[in-house]
TrEMBL record:
It is an enzyme of class 3 (hydrolase). It comes from the Eukaryota. GO terms for biological process: pigment biosynthetic process; tetrahydrobiopterin biosynthetic process; tetrahydrofolate biosynthetic process. It catalyses: GTP + H2O = 7,8-dihydroneopterin 3'-triphosphate + formate + H(+). GO terms for molecular function: GTP binding; GTP cyclohydrolase I activity; zinc ion binding. This is GTP cyclohydrolase 1. It comes from Oryctes borbonicus. Its EC number is 3.5.4.16. Residues 76-251 form the GTP cyclohydrolase I domain. One of its GO terms (cellular component) is cytoplasm. Keywords: GTP-binding, Hydrolase, Nucleotide-binding, Tetrahydrobiopterin biosynthesis. CDD domains: GTP_cyclohydro1. Pathway: Cofactor biosynthesis; 7,8-dihydroneopterin triphosphate biosynthesis; 7,8-dihydroneopterin triphosphate from GTP: step 1/1.
Length: 254
């Protein structure tokens, strides 16, 4: 086993002897949309957006205001929340809490400000080989969209290249893009798999996510030791049981 120098992940390269059937992105998979993202991009011609500061001469897709612009409104909302709880937001311990909470929430959801193209940054390399690449135990932190409380865990990704490989750190970056949003674990798992497919168009992609959800630990059933495991298998990982088994054995090995 080789390590890539990151403390949060290990990667393994395993020889895959049989020839691979390469599939193109457009032929096999539909892109997973982020909830809340309009299907039709909003531009300066969209009613109500004529003066939007995010619309420039190039007619870029509509994007939210800068983070600094959002902080005052978010802080006021947190202040109202504190008051609704019966707290005094002006007492010493809470005086700066609305601003701190707003900044923290923006950090927890920074994935909304990132795109796959920006994160990949051309770190895709031509490489003519048929080896399985597995990066496992990538740390993940996200926010449950149902209760706005955290869930966290680890992600393992495997893919079979078809002439292109991805810089190993970029797999961890892809996890960051989609985990740092309001999420459900099932959708997060699929978004990661689809993003890797879109990036390098491999013969197959496999993703396993193991998460601990604070909405189950702190409220509701309050089962402290419960874990949720989700998986997405695309291409040969879905079609070939032996390839899938090999990946799962690598993921669960010590």
């Amino acid at each position: 086993m080789e390590t890539n120098g990151d403390q949060f992940a290990h990667h393994t390269i395993v020889k895959k002897p049989k020839p691979l059937i390469c599939r193109s992105w457009s032929e096999n998979y539909d892109e997973v949309e982020v909830p809340g993202t309009p299907k039709t991009p909003r531009t300066s011609t969209t009613p109500g957006h004529e003066k939007c500061t995010f619309h420039h001469d190039l007619e870029l897709d509509h994007r939210p205001p800068t983070r600094e612009d959002m902080l005052p409104d978010m802080a006021r909302s947190y202040r109202l929340l504190l008051s609704s709880l019966g707290e005094n937001p002006d007492r010493q311990g809470l005086l700066k809490t609305p601003e701190r909470a707003a900044k923290a929430m923006l950090f927890f959801t920074k994935g909304y400000d990132q795109s796959l193209e920006e994160v990949l940054n051309d770190a895709i390399f031509d490489e003519d080989h048929d080896e399985m690449v597995v990066v496992k135990d990538i740390e993940m932190f996200s926010m449950c969209e149902h209760h706005l409380v955290p869930f966290y865990g680890k992600v393992s990704i495997g893919y079979l290249p078809c002439g292109k490989i991805l810089g190993l750190s970029k797999l961890a970056r892809i996890v960051e893009i989609y985990s740092r949003r309001l999420q459900v674990q099932e959708r997060l798992t699929k978004q990661i798999a689809v993003a890797v497919t879109k990036a390098v168009q491999p013969a197959g992609v496999a993703v396993v996510v193991e998460g601990v959800h604070m909405c189950m630990v702190m409220r509701g059933v309050q089962k402290i030791n419960s874990k949720t495991v989700t998986s997405t298998m695309l291409g040969v990982f879905r079609d070939d049981p032996k390839t899938r088994e090999e990946f799962l054995n690598l993921v669960h090995s010590k």
